Amino acid sequence: MALFKILKGESSRIDTGTTKFNEGYAYFTPDDAGFYIDATVGEQQKRIRINRREIVASRQPDKLDEGDTWLQEVV
Fold it and tell me: Which of 28, 38, 50, 71 minimizes the number of CB atoms within 10 Å of its CB?
């Protein structure tokens, strides 16, 4: 069984110049609700955002209940 650990940080640090590429790593940027995976595609290393901002914004609830972890605003 493999461990799946998601790294978390500000979206301003998601570029591979700041946060080095690591095959198979996942990243969550809570300030813009981004979710990324590092993968080698062909011979190219890519950090791929796997969710679209429009989808996240359209599914965000209007009202938060105690204990919910949704962002209150999606930028």
Answer: 50
Q: Which amino acid is at 20?
A: K
What H or E segment, with its residue span, contains residue 73? none
Whole-Å CA distances, 59 to 34, 46, 49, 62, 74: 14, 27, 17, 9, 11
Question: For residue 1, how far is the Cα from the chain centroid?
Answer: 23
Encoded tokens for 50: 């796997």
- Specify which residues 46 forms β-bridges with: 39
Alpha helices in 1-75 (DSSP H): 53-59
CA proximity to 49, closest of 4, 23, 14: 14
Contact between 1 and 12 under an 8 Å Cβ cutoff? The reply is no
Specify the pTM. Answer: 0.66
Residue 52: the pLDDT is: 76
